[in-house]
Amino acid sequence: MFDAFSYFEKLWEDHQPDLRADLGSDGKSNGRLGRSAQADFWNRRASSYDAHGNQTESREHRRLLVESLADKAGIGPDSQVLDIGCGPGKMALVFAEKAARVEALDIAPKMIALAEENAAEEKRPNVHFQALDWSEADLSALGWEKKFQLVLASKTPAVNDRAALEKMTAASNGYCCLITQVDVRNSVAEQLKPLIDWDERRARLCRSFYCAFNLLWLLGYYPEVEYFERTWIGESSLEDAELMHCRYFDSIKPLTASQKKALARKLESLSQDGLIKEVGAAKAAVMFWSVRP
């Protein structure tokens, strides 16, 4: 008999690039190596990620998104918000303008250090940041069971399985929101795809959105979905570009050593003075659901 839960859980698990490293000789996962790799990746990207979030277009987009989510969730002066995978704290700080308190966590200590600096600069004492792996968060010990009016996870690998979704719901007394990329078109990535065995259908199938939506539906929730689109022109260091693109392609299908070398050579050829310019367009899904019956 077909087990829908197992199907979507397995599909989601199979496309986590960092978590594949957890498998030992017995084929079982303990999570430690993968989460360590994940923290290392985001530590290395922390400074450039923070800088990108300071750009005017990013600020405007973020403020409009928070306005919409706060309105839908009924966030007010007495509300509390939880931000999972907060990065350098950009969204948490905007929510702090509206809520009584914001708790925010990220697996990468360097992201948290930047978030604390940003909070001090903006004088937002009602935000608390901590380096914490969501999969290891003990809601009871933290006092977070049914505590938050809104539990948010925006474009973060922290929510990567059924257990993470269920924990989001367990921490909320009102609403949850999961924001994921559903399509990204990048001028640099398009030049890299011919170097690997790219499968567009597989890439679409393994998006987190597809698995998360179906699991929530099977769990008895009715997630609302809105899509929004963005375009950008930017640049990144050669090191950042290699990190990002190799991680992305490896998440779709594990790269061979020769493919990684080919990607590195191509990226180097595209760089000028150690920088790579790109033009991009992305479509993201905002999945919003009530935890109340």
Characterization of this structure:
- This protein is of the alpha/beta class.
- The protein has a single domain (4-182, 207-228, 286-290), classed as 3-Layer(aba) Sandwich (Rossmann fold), CATH 3.40.50.150.
- It is 46% helix and 23% strand.
- The chain contains 12 helices and 7 strands.
- It has helices at residues 4-13, 32-53, 56-73, 90-95, 109-122, 139-142, 162-171, 187-192, 200-205, 208-218, 238-252, 257-270; strands at residues 80-84, 101-106, 127-131, 148-154, 172-186, 224-237, 275-290.
- A 7-stranded mixed beta sheet has the order 3-2-1-4-5-7-6, with helices on both faces.
- It is globular, with a radius of gyration of 19 Å.
- The protein starts with a helix and ends with a strand.
- The model is unreliable at 20-33 (pLDDT under 50).
